[in-house]
Structures are given as C-alpha cells and as structure tokens.
Amino acid sequence: MQKEFAISLIILIIAAALIFAAQPPAKYQEKHFSSYGELSDFLKARSQTQYYDYGMLGAERVMASTAAPTAAGASESKATDYSTTNVQVAGVDEPDIVKTDGKYIYTASSDKLTIVDAYPAEGMKTVSVLKANGSISNMFVNKDRLVVFGSAYNYGPYGPLDATAGAPISESMPYYRSSQNAFIYVYDITDRANPVLVRNITLEGSYKDARMIGDYVYAIAQQPVRTLDSGPVLPLMSIGMETKEISADNIAYFDEYDTYFSYNFFIAVNTQNDAEAPNEKVFLLGYSQDLYASQDNIYTVSTKYMTEAERNGRLMESLMPSLPLELQSGIREIQGRNISSYEKTYETGKLIQNYAANLGPEEGAKFMKALEERMIVIITAMEKDYEKTVIHKISVSGPNIEYKTSGEVPGRVLNQFSMDEYDGNFRIATTTGQSWSGSSLNHVYVLDQNLNTIGRLENLAPKERIYSARFMGGRAYLVTFVQTDPLFVIDLKDPHAPAVLGELKIPGFSEYLHPYDANHLIGIGQMTDENGRRTGQLKLSLFDVTDVANPKEMSGYLIGEKGDYSYSEALDDHKAFLFSEPKHLLVIPVSMDNYRAGYYGSYTQGAYVFDVTLENGITLKGAVTHKTANASAEEYYYEGDTAVRRSLYMDNTLYTVSDAKIMANNLADLSKISEVTITESAPWQPPIWDGFMGV
User: Which of 516, 514, 541 shows the shortest CA–CA distance to 527?
Assistant: First the structure.
C-alpha cells in the first residue's frame, strides 16, 4: 500500500514537472492599460472567474440632519485634557465609531450618527442626529469637519435583460438584484446643531478602511471585478451628482500578479478645502486584507498561493537530484516526447514501477520508502513558499497618491499590528503552515525602502501561530500560542540580523499588546488551564521587559470565573482599548455570561475600569453598566444595544458609549453624573432605485 501510494504521488507530481523553475519573486511593476480591450484580454489570460453582473443600484446619499431644540445657547467650554482614538502610529488617525473633540461626542450606530454636547457632563445633551440610507462604518473629526464612511446595500427590481448583458429573463418573472456602494460624506459642523453636507463621494464597491494625516483623509474601497459576456465591468465613482466611469487607461495593474482581482480605489480628500477636488487612483490588485499606514506611506497586503503546477514543479526540481541517473535520464526523455500529458504520466509511472520491480521486492520497497521520506522533507520545506503575503507600498502626501514598489514574504499576517515602518524599513511578522496540523512556523522579516528583504528571523515557535504582535522602535514583541503564552522579545536594532532576546511562557495568551512605556507592555487576552484549554476568563497582564533576556509578567488580573464566557471587543479592535499612563487608567468593554447559573446564566455587559501602575500592578477600580433598571437576565441576554463599546475621558469625567446611551461618571469614584439616551434608528426600508446616483 505504501509503495502504491508513493508511486501514485510521484506520478502526479511528474505530470506537471519540469515546466517550472524556482525563481526569486518578481517585482510588481505598475502599468496602465492602453485600452478596454487590453484590460479584457489581461483578465481572460489570468483565468478570471467569469460571472454575470446586471449593474448597480444607487442609494439615497443625502443624510437628514435634525437639530434638537436644546442645542441653542450651548456652552462652548472645552476640556483641557481629553482622550483620542487609540491608534497604531502617532500622527496617523484611524476612523472609529466614536470620536470626541473635548467638547462633543460623535457616535455612530447602524444608519445614524449622533452628536452630543458632553462637556461639562452635568449638562450633557443631544444636539443633532444624522441618518444615512446605508450602514455607517466609522468617522473622523477634524476641527469643524466631520467625515463619515459607510456602505449602502441596494436591492430592487430589474426589468428584462439585454442579451449582451446576460441571459434574458421573462417580464412575467421579476428579477431582483443587489449591489454595494461605499460612501464618504464630509460635513461642515461649525454649528453642531445644524451640520451641512459639503462633500458627497460614492465609490462602487465596499468600504475597506481609511487614515487621516493632517487635513487629508485617505480612504480605500474595493470592488471585485465583474464580467459580462461583453467584457469586464469598469468601476464607477461619483462626486456630488456627477458620475464617472473609470476608464481602462486610468486603471493601474501589475502583470506578474496572478490572483482573483479587485478594483482598489485609493482616494485623497482635503477635509478643510472644499474647492480642492478629491484625487483618486484605481489599482487592479488582489483583495486587500489589511493595511498599515505611516505618515508617508500606506502598505496594503494580500495573500498569494502557489499554484499546483508550481508546487509540483518545485517538488520535482528538488526530487530529481535524489533519483538514480537512470531514472533521471528516462524521465527527461519521456517529458521531451511529443505526446499528451496523460501519456507522459502513464509512461513515467511504468518507468518508476519497472525500476522498483527490477530492484527486487526488498530493495524496491526500500527505494520507494526512501523516495517517500525525501518527498515529505521537501514538502515540509516548501510550506513557507506555499502561502505568501504580497505587499504594495503607496506613498501619500497631501492630495498626492503614488505607487512606489512591491515585495513578498512567506506566510500570512494576523492584522495591522503585524506590520511596521521604522527608519525607512518595513517590518512584518507572518505565520506559515497550520497550527492544527502541526506544520506552522512564525517569522519576522525586514524589508528595505524598495521592499527587498534584508533581514529575517524564521521558524519561531513550531506548531504555534501568532496571536498578537507589536513593533516598538528597535524591538518587536510576538505572542504565539498552543498551550502556554510565549512572549518573544525580538531585537531589530540591526535590521540585517533580527534576533530573539528573551522569551516568557505563562498560562493564557494575549491577543492585543499595548505599550505602557518603553520597557513595559499591557496584554489583553484569554486564560487557559494547564492543558491549554480556554477557561472562559479574560486575562490582563502587565509585562516587564526591562531585562530583555528575562521578560516577566509583573501583574495580572482575571475577569470572570472558570466556566464562564467572558469577552471584550478590545480583543479584536484596539480602538475599544482606552489607556492613559498619566491617569493610571485602563478601561475595556466586557460582556460576561455566567453559564454556571443556568441556561441563560447571569449576563452582564459594561466597562471595567482599572488602575494600572508599576508599583501596584493592575487593580480593578469598578465597573460601569448601561443595563436598564429591573431588566431580567433573560431580557438582557437578547438586548445587544446595552453593550458598552467605547470609553473616553474629558478632564476627570469618564464617558462610556453603547448603542443605547452615553453615560458620564466621575473618574475618582465612578459615581454617575449624567446620561443621554441615543434615539433609536427608524425601521429599515429598501431604498428607491433611481440609477447609480439616485437621490
């Protein structure tokens, strides 16, 4: 059986062998199509999956603003000390569902955005509500401008189809279609009670992410390439009521890139100067999974997989030198014949079988076993090349968006914190293989400004995967996990020679790492037992990395009991993590279900407030909940709008924000000061179709 399996596997490999030679990764050179026909031919040559598309439905893009009567005569006093969004890079703002400018709180939920006059807390009140015909994703606030991002999902009837646009359908059988548009709205909020829409930008596709550097917002939207019988559909965008189709010669592409393509919109918007037209670039890329932004560059990453022909060719290339010369010569002779691939496979199989048979039963079995073992070694070594992260570097400066270069590294990234730019170099942490199969390895690569790899640290924590990463100056911190939590301290001062400085193994694992100062980290994750099973408890850790060779967990705190289910949005979204070292303040949203109390358990949601110092470690100060008075556990199990999602502070007041309310509490003792109920959104209604730019 083993012999037959090995022969079958070798035959399968040789069927596609000798047509691929391993080469270093090519640099992706930016090019532009000269015509629509060239775009169509390019996509056909890359074997794009073709499917029919029947156009887009427009969305109503006007957001209604309603001024609350209480807005008149609002105080203009402002906090002298207030928190901002927790971002990865100083000077690069990230959009969020909650923002503050030290006076007002702006909070988005579903299709509405509420502006609340929150300072001083004693007079907190809603001043206006904006409603979108779509789902609001997040926002920026810059001086007296509010920038809102989101997506409109459209669904409506479509009449009989033209034969060139797909298979005709009967008028008696109505056809319904759906589409998605990404919108960017810029409001003048000089008068918070009466926001004025000054920019209305719509991009075909889904909103991905954005960054704000100075007064400029850089937003990204993606649209998978859709193909009709007549050819690929070109992407659309609109500014105000003017719609334009992006012509093929304005779409940048990379001819070495072979994947499932998407139109990637990059658009720069001046938030303060309405006379400056937005600048857009469209790139034909793979689906962008994550992005990292410095003050000068945006890096997008996507995953590229080795093709079957490449895998087989690489295997054969590595395997051939270990074969007897007689077999090597015979295989090459068969591959050179003018016969079909099926015949080549058949003839090669006979050659291998005859060779093994001529060795005799015992020697033949040894030969096949050695061949199989050699293949296992080769396949294991190839794991790092099977899955690669493709990196595209795009520089941004004011209204300018310029493609710079590209690079590749083995493996896949976890999230944006797996990437970093420092001293002109780009650092990235990846995982190859799968932890569930025991083939996973973890790596750190350093790339120069041209995205050529100049340093590497490979094969960390076999059989584990990265759960969190953080780059801080000349160091990197990685947390991997299978049974315990190895925290790796990595030296990156010499970009050409990354090295592990120290390692700490403790129960549990951190899913987000946050700097306390240059030599201390805060981790938030989950607790595990001695067998590596999750206990259902949240775990906070304070790490001391002053002695890089011997990192220590100097303090820890567990939320919940064993057998409970505890969760924090901060595990998945760093913007839910509020920390101030001067105030010794740490606040995270927590939801917890005590399953031990029964089927529903005792379900609680709120914000946990901690005092964090190097002297006393992590201590719980208290909790703030938005739970309705007298609500039963069963009722609250189903009411998701009471979960605290964000927290912020203005001077000595803590504000917690849920989809239902904003609550203000005194930071000293967490006593309640005031609260504002957020108006519930109107029931959803399907928009009226009136074309792409329907209003």
Answer: 541
pLDDT over 70 at 74, yes or no? no
Which three-class secondary structure state does DSSP give residue 375?
Answer: helix
35/13 same-domain check: no
- Please tell me the pTM assigned to this model: 0.83
* Residue 191 CB burial class (10 angstroms; 0-12, 13-18, ≥19): middle
Phi-psi map region of 293: left, alpha, beta (phi>0 left; psi -120 to 50 alpha): beta
Q: What are phi and psi of 301, to 5 degrees?
A: -130, 145
Tokens 């990354």 appear where? 498
Which helix (H) or strand (E) segment holds residue 688: the answer is none
- Strand partners for 112: 109, 131
In a domain, 593, yes or no: no
Q: Using the 3D structure, point to which of 317, 351, 384 is the last residue of a domain.
A: 384
503, 481, 485: which is closest to 550 by C-alpha?
Answer: 503
CA within 13 Å, CB half, 334? 24
Q: Which residues contact 341 (CB under 8 A, 6 or more apart)?
A: 15, 16
Rounded to 10 deg, the angle between the 361-386 and 308-319 helix axes is 130
Two structure tokens written together for 613: 């110092």
Residue with tokens 């129960």: 507
Q: Is residue 377 domain-shared with residue 230, that is, in the same domain?
A: no
106 burial level (CB within 10 Å; 0-12, 13-18, 19+): buried
pLDDT digits (tens, 9 = 90+) for 126-140: 999 999 888 999 999
Least confident of 186-190, 313-317, 415-419, 629-633: 629-633
Give the chain's mean pLDDT. 82
User: Residue 375 has what pLDDT?
Assistant: 74
pLDDT at 39: 87
User: The domain containing residue 59 runs over which residues?
Assistant: 31-70+92-253
Both 230 and 313 in one domain: the answer is no
Phi, psi (rounded to 5 degrees) for 75: -70, 145
